[in-house]
Amino acid sequence: MSKRGFAPLVKCLPLPLDKGKGIKGIGLVNNLNSFHLVQTCPDSKARAGELITPHGLVPTPVFLPVGSQGAVKTLTPEEVKDIGMAMVLANTYHLYLRPGIGVIERMGGLHRFMGWDRAILTDSGGYQIFSLASLRRVSDEGVIFRSHIDGSQHHLTPELIIQFQETLGADIIMALDECPAYDASFEQVQTAVDRTHRWAERCQKSQKRDDQALYAIVQGGVFPQLRHQSAEYLTLLGFSGYAIGGLSIGEPREQTLAMIEETVALLPENKPRYLMGVGSPEGIVDGIARGIDMFDSALPTRVARNGAFFTWQGRHNIRNSVYSQMEQPIVAGCDCYTCRTFSAAYLHHLFSCDELLAYRLATIHNLNFISELMRKVRSAILGGTFNSFKDNFLAGYRPTDEQIRLSQKRKWLKSHSPSGITNSD
Amino acid sequence: MSKRGFAPLVKCLPLPLDKGKGIKGIGLVNNLNSFHLVQTCPDSKARAGELITPHGLVPTPVFLPVGSQGAVKTLTPEEVKDIGMAMVLANTYHLYLRPGIGVIERMGGLHRFMGWDRAILTDSGGYQIFSLASLRRVSDEGVIFRSHIDGSQHHLTPELIIQFQETLGADIIMALDECPAYDASFEQVQTAVDRTHRWAERCQKSQKRDDQALYAIVQGGVFPQLRHQSAEYLTLLGFSGYAIGGLSIGEPREQTLAMIEETVALLPENKPRYLMGVGSPEGIVDGIARGIDMFDSALPTRVARNGAFFTWQGRHNIRNSVYSQMEQPIVAGCDCYTCRTFSAAYLHHLFSCDELLAYRLATIHNLNFISELMRKVRSAILGGTFNSFKDNFLAGYRPTDEQIRLSQKRKWLKSHSPSGITNSD
Questions:
Q1: Which listed residue (A171, A177, A296, A425) is catalytic?
Q2: Subunit contact B114:A341, Cβ cutoff 8 A
Q3: Which of B349, B351, B425 to substitute to test the interface with A, most A CBs within 10 Å?
Q4: Which residues lie across from B65 on neighbouring strands?
Q5: d(C-alpha A157, C-alpha A139), whole Å
């Protein structure tokens, strides 16, 4: 396959800087990875920037669609590109278990394996080990667990996780972290934070490749004091970027937002900030207003497969009989392939019949919606109108009811806990 | 949606006739539908022709991918086009039950509903009523049955089936037939043949639209005498085309081929002959050699979703561990999207993980394979080399073992019998 179809990798793209705006801050990582702030919002903490990666420039704020197992569910790489996505997320835990890191190495690395020539971020798998695997035994050395697929036993360490991610060859790689449940006690979270710090340091020390940006993950649950500790400690170590982990895992939204604020306040201005696991339209806008540059979540693609689609007024479900005879597309004026091509009635029909095409068409719509949202947000930040954009958006967008959302989330987390289910996202 | 994305329908395409070859026979149906023989093979009954339809020219021999419920499973209309398909099949029985004929009428007809601007053939649903529905009561008047989806009771007549197909608006429509099981007795098949004839006549009489070609369906099971009766009777009535039904439903291959020969011998030369339900590469080549112009079958798409893919040496399964580390595409030199883009190892991985993308990629490959097979066959007929092409192909292609094939087919038919299952193809 090596001679077929792949354009040579773009080693370093010229920087299309916004003229006259200057560069607010540069977080130079290495020759191939850097982050530039282009504009900050005068009325909020929102910021527009650019991530330079070995696989192209990524405008921020950015949303990463999730392709845990090396594929954004239902879509080809071309479709993900056409939607405008500049970076996707894959998961070291999933790829380690299937097909195995060695297989991907022999296939020429993750980009070539999945046919994606733009940027990739690999998550370390910390969250998955703590949410999917069973019979975990955590020690400072690392973690022993059983695969959620076949029950086989594995022993992973921070050093191994870095080695795996260097072999996979993503543009951005993540330190191994310990992610406690949302209802863990202060003491439990403190223990996890301390271990996450020691592991981050070992990840940093074991890094050999100089063309990948390594991000640390701030933990601390819903305890401001621990979030402060974690952000300060990891900042002192000096990483290419900082993720906020352990949020959006079942805690109320108010706490999520408060923890983002507590953490961002202590993170360096000139490094990218990545809020893990948040992908609802309102969650993204709220995060951006609080200084977040990067998001990932399986939510837009997962709810799509259940028939839920985003509109500027909120999330609706195509299975509702109101759509059974609607000649209009699901979102009037939407420029995605689904809305340009099919009536809501057709999509309703496909879902009624469980036609596999249904899941694709809804996925395309939801990812396109998020992509358009990101473009609108960035343009508002660059134009100095982010705050009014945000107010308008949030006034018009009816978020999923908080109680329903939390109960769904907890139910989903439970169904994905060690007792069961193999579905990755 | 009426103003979005649809090119105006091609009312009648200019005929790209093969220069110097002349037209062997013209079966003019009406202004918008006709069939032209372009070339016949001197050494076999194979023939190349052209179907003119209101939605474009269809070179024959042609294979119709199955989209029973208004979608070729997993694919968009654009993908089906890119593969080179000129006509698809949809099913009146399925569309009548879901979403209902009236819904599709209000959405502007079947072409617009499913976003497909090339030719469509709708099957009458006879076969489905006799294989999927439960509690059938057949009389000369029509058939009363219960839906395989919700058990609701329905009464259909030949006149209603034509009315439905006129409302759906396909280019080619089919008469209602009665299809007995492959192990039915001579007397049972005789009764079904007689009823099929009376129904065909009523279908013909009730046809109102003059822009759709109506095909009759020859029945007769595995009894040469009944096949003769049926072919002669329906030919006397005079239809735009003749389908051969009631084959490839569990009988041995030798009988299938013998029945095709018995039937084709009595069908008019200048009308298209359509072998229903045959879609294996070897079955298609065998049928073409015996004078068949059209084929449809869910087999290429159905087996794809089980991981089976066509090669010029036979059918293989990507789940086999031999593919787990294969860097080459599944078929070296294949020009389909799947083979141009991904290694066999990646496809193996996607199937191992039950990633939905897997089903798409395998479907694209199998339909592309059939499409390429049809192009090669047609080119061989036009070039006067069909017989050697056929011999070479059949010598290299190892068909699925007859015993395994029959047991799989019967198992599948059983799982789709009135006792169960809603999957349409």
A1: A296
A2: no
A3: B349
A4: B297
A5: 10
Give the closest residue to A96 by CA, choosing from A60, A59, A133. A133
- Give the residue from chain B lying closest to A149, CA to CA: B353
Q: In chain A, which residue's Cα lies nearest the Cα of B110?
A: A346
- Residue A269, classified by CB atoms within 10 Å of its CB into exposed (0-12), middle (13-18) or buried (19+), is middle
Q: Classify each residue of A10-43 as buried b or exposed e, where b means 16 or more C-beta atoms within 10 Å of its C-beta.
A: eeeeeeeeeeeeeeeeebebeebbbbbbbbbbee
Per residue in B152-189, pLDDT (tens digit) is 999 999 999 999 999 999 999 999 999 998 899 999 99
**pTM across the whole model:** 0.91
Angle between helices B356-382 and B386-396 in degrees, nearest 10? 140
Cα–Cα distance for residue pair A122/A22, rounded to 1 Å:
31
In tens, the pLDDT along A10-66 reads 333 333 333 333 344 455 555 689 999 999 999 999 999 999 999 999 999 999 999
- State the ipTM, two decimals: 0.91
Do A107 and B327 make contact, defined as CB atoms within 8 angstroms?
A: yes
**What is A205-271 written as a DSSP string?**
HH---SSSEEEEEE--TT-HHHHHHHHHHHHHH--SEEEE-S-SSSS-HHHHHHHHHHHHTTS-TTS
Contacts of B356 in chain A (CB under 8 A): 73-74, 356, 359-360
Task: Give the distance from residue A162's alpha carbon to the nearest chain B alpha carbon, in angstroms.
Answer: 23
Interchain pair A70, B346: CB under 8 A: yes
Q: Which residue has the tokens 């020691």?
A: A198
